[in-house]
From TrEMBL:
Protein name listed in UniProt: Transglycosylase SLT domain-containing protein
A matching Pfam family: SLT
Domain (Transglycosylase SLT): residue spans on this chain: 67-156
Taxonomic source organism: Thermosipho atlanticus DSM 15807
UniProt superkingdom: Bacteria
InterPro entries referenced in this protein's UniProt entry, alphabetically: Lysozyme-like_dom_sf, Transglycosylase_SLT_dom_1
Length: 324
């Protein structure tokens, strides 16, 4: 009866889950696949991004000097999507690069509040310097040095300014910002000393305004050895963004196997640069103290692909990960 109750509580939560750092998938615009090659098995994941409305743009305009211009800018830059990512690494609704973001007080470009107010500060700065909003917008697009020294870039920047100003006059006052979520299906197997482990996971990725990212990840593992053992785990991990790339991870793991229930906290750290390197590590304290219960992943990627190497604490195995 106790087993049945646990299963009935756990199985509905299979709607939630996470593959790894959320930014790795929330910046995707089309369905894709992730394949993990273990030393003694493999895992495959299929993911599907969705777009949905969140808060009104007007939520962020109270302290802006140029709210209508910023509205046009956000439309041209990202289509109001807070997890937009360019091929050159510009991030978020206002498409900031790290150096420019730092200059205008944007610590986390995925957070629309920071990004939109940072864009307004940038336009304000260059308007006060040059006295012209079109020039300020052009510099936003091509950079001040390019604008002043390269005629073609200056022309490009001024054409961008025209598009932003035109868009700002056409967009509805009640426009909403957009976010992405991801649904996925994951399955795999590993043959180790304990026998064959088969795992199945179905889930989604979601966040709150680019600041808190949630991983509520249920898992069914079937261990086939001399006797069949079923393991159910429900893991919650919260990624708290410190800046564009760094997050601290806190969570909790609740599990059940043939020997009974187990639970404990999860603590970790994630560095994820969507165009560049990534590193993730966390420890699951619901399991016995053992170095093999540390999950580690190191990778490198671009907008449409990423290759990683890591150690999976569930399968106790090293793997190579290819996401595309």
């Amino acid at each position: 009866m106790k087993k049945l109750f646990f299963i009935l509580i756990l199985l509905p939560s299979l709607l939630f889950g996470l593959l790894n750092d959320p930014i790795n998938f929330l910046t995707e615009t089309k369905p894709g696949m992730q394949i993990q090659f273990y030393t003694n098995g493999g895992k495959i994941s299929i993911y599907y991004p969705i777009i949905y409305k969140i808060v009104s743009f007007d939520t962020f305009t109270e302290t802006m000097r140029y709210p209508n211009i910023i509205k046009g800018l956000a439309y041209i830059e990202s289509g109001f999507n807070i997890h937009a990512l360019s091929y050159v690494g510009a991030m978020g609704i206002a498409q900031f690069k790290p150096d420019t973001a730092k200059d205008f007080g944007v610590v986390n470009a995925w957070n629309p509040f920071q990004a939109l107010l940072g864009a307004d500060r940038m336009l304000r700065f260059y308007y006060e310097k040059y006295g012209d909003i079109s020039t300020a917008l052009a510099i936003y697009n091509v950079g001040e040095t390019n604008f002043n020294k390269d005629k073609e870039m200056k022309k490009k920047g001024l054409e961008y300014a025209e598009k932003v100003i035109a868009a700002s006059k056409k967009i509805s006052e009640n426009i909403s910002l957009l976010d992405r979520g991801v649904y996925y299906l994951q399955a795999g197997f590993v043959n180790n000393l304990d026998g064959i482990n088969i795992t199945l996971e179905v889930g989604t990725i979601f966040d709150i305004l680019g600041q808190l990212y949630f991983d509520i990840s249920p898992k069914l593992i079937t261990q086939l050895s001399s006797g069949t053992n079923f393991v159910f785990e429900l893991t919650e991990k919260t990624y708290i963004k410190l800046d564009h790339f760094n997050s601290i991870v806190f969570g909790y793991n609740l599990g059940y196997n043939n020997e009974g229930m187990y639970n404990g906290p999860i603590v970790g750290y994630s560095y994820f640069k969507p165009i560049g390197y990534s590193f993730e590590a966390y420890y699951d304290f619901s399991k016995p103290i053992d170095i093999k219960n540390i999950s580690i992943k190191i990778g490198y990627g671009q907008k449409d692909w990423r290759v990683s190497f890591g150690f999976d604490s569930d399968f106790k195995s090293f793997y190579v990960d290819l996401k595309f």
